[in-house]
Every structure is written in C-alpha cells, then in structure tokens.
Amino acid sequence: MRKLLLLIAGLAAALTVGAQDREADSLRHSFGRQQLSSSTRKSTPYADTLDTGNPAVKVVLYNNGTYRYVKDPSKVVEDSVFTANWDTRAVNPYREEPESLPDRFSVWVVDTLDSYCCPYQTHPRSLFGYRHGRRHQGIDLPYPTGTPVPAAFDGKVRISDYVGGYGNLVVIRHANGLETFYGHLSRRDVKSGDWVNAGDIIGLGGSTGRSTGPHLHFETRYHGAAFDPAWLIDFESGTLRHRLLKIRSWYFNPNQRYVQSVDDEDEIFRTDEEDRIAAEEQAKKEAAARAAAEAAAIRYHTVRSGDTLSGIAKKYHTSVRELCRLNGIKESSILRIGQRIRVR
Length: 344
Description:
Number of strands: 21
Largest sheet: 7 strands, antiparallel
CATH architecture of the largest domain: Distorted Sandwich
Distance between the termini: 74 Å
Radius of gyration: 30 Å
CATH class of the largest domain: Mainly Beta
Helix content: 10-25%
Shape: elongated
Number of helices: 6
Number of domains: 3
CATH topology of the largest domain: Glucose Permease (Domain IIA)
CATH superfamily of the largest domain: Glucose Permease (Domain IIA)
Structural class: alpha+beta
C-alpha cells in the first residue's frame, strides 16, 4: 500500500510539474510575442542599490521613490559570450559558416531586465540583400551628421574603430549572442570593452567610409552571420517586433528579406513538435505539387505510318536515347501504327 501511495504521489507530482511546464511555456510564448516600444532606462538619480538572491541582479532605488531590477554589468560580462571569439578588430571573429547553425532556434532579445531603444525611427533607405552586385548585410537609415546614435540593446562594445568601408564603426555584442553594428559614424563616443545600456549614446551620425551621404548603416548578426534587421525591428514604428526571436537558418540567406505573412506570429511561436508536423505537411504538399507538375508535363505521340524513333525525336526536340528510356524500349524496337510513345 505504501508503495502504491508513493507511486500515486509521484504521478501527481509529475502531472503538476508537467502542467506547470506547459503553463510556463505558454507564458513564455505569450511574453515573447509582445512587441516593445522604444525606450531607455530612467535617468532619475538613484539613492541606493540592494542585493538579490542572484549576484547578477540588483534592485535600484531611485530618489523619486520608485525602484527596478537591473542586471549588474560586472557580473554579466563574466559570461563566456563576452570572452569566446572576442576580437576588437575583426568584423567577423567567428570561424564558422551559417550552415553550421541549427535550422531553427530561439533568442531572447529583451527580457524583463533589459531595455530596448530604436536606433532611429524612419523609413529605411537601402535594404538588406544585394545592391549593385555587392552584398549589403544591413540596412541604411537616413541619419543627419552629428545626430546622436543610441545603442539598441544592453551590451559590451567589441569594436570601436575605423574599419574600411564601414568608416567609424561600433560593434556591440549582447548577452544573447547577437551583435549590432553601427557604421559611417562621424564620431565614436565609446571604446572597446565599455558596457552600454540601451539608449546610451555611442557616437554621432555621419558619412565616413564607403558612403554617398549621411546615414547610419545598421546590421544584426548572430555568430557572425548577418540577417535582415527588419526581422527584429519595425523601423517605421520604432517597435521591437518580438521579445523572443525565433530564427530560421534561411534568415542568413543574403537574398532573404523580412516578409510578414498572415500567420507570421503563429509560425514564429510554433513549438518544435508543431514545426515538425508543419514541415511534414509542407513536404507532402510539395511532393504532390511536383507529381502534379510532372503529370501535367507528360506528352505522348501516336505512331503513324512512316514514323521512326529518330523522326519523332527530331519533332519533339529530344533524343532517341531519351525516348527509349521513357518508354522502356530499344533503338532497334519496331514501332506499331497506333502505338503511344511518351515524348516528355
């Protein structure tokens, strides 16, 4: 009896944990779906900081009586993301190809302790993809010279230097592994190793490097692989599209720009099992479409008096060998009047 009671208790606990996991996953996706308007941290002077159970998190008490939880940069930067493949000169310090990344994975862009600031709310001038035969790995935002440029997210400055076509360039690595690039600056106000919060000014807009006029070249990369920043930010409204970004491997295709579908949110926040089922259904649809296309492309010729394989091949712009393959016959086979010969 005691064993039975323990078994029942264990099953009940497992069901409770399972329900909690499902609820947590639901809340995670619900929170991740949320868009986020551009904002910065409070500029109100603070009175004190308090420790929490997590050494990387502090409570900041402000003079106006408010408070908030914030990450402690001195602890955050100890993470391996800020040491592995860290190079203050190389634009891409990673020794891997985009093909080596998973087919799909999720990245928390902003959680409850992070802030977000739109680099510049405007209509992008030059989009991600190929431009004049050259790969353009970000987007260009019209940006008057001398205009302050804010960091989009919290992070550590990896590069602050003059780098070829980028001109004055600042690259910030974020705790989630993403990096943001800010190019063509007229002035850099941060140095490599600095910690910045979203909204902190990192430099001024300009037209240095390979540039035809004042603008901000903005890139988003993951492990060195560039993807369209529009998957992340709606620059027209200045909002972050989602707090949780689910990345597909084809995002890194240089020809793949952001395109919002009707079921965009459902696609982005599907579970792995739902993704698997959707992929199988898509594969079936594609196979059926190929079969239908092949069936529609099939053509036949009815043999008439005087027809030969070479004559039929010439008429349909194919070869005798191909006719034999399609019909399972030999070049020496005798044709019969009325016989149907497949020619496509």
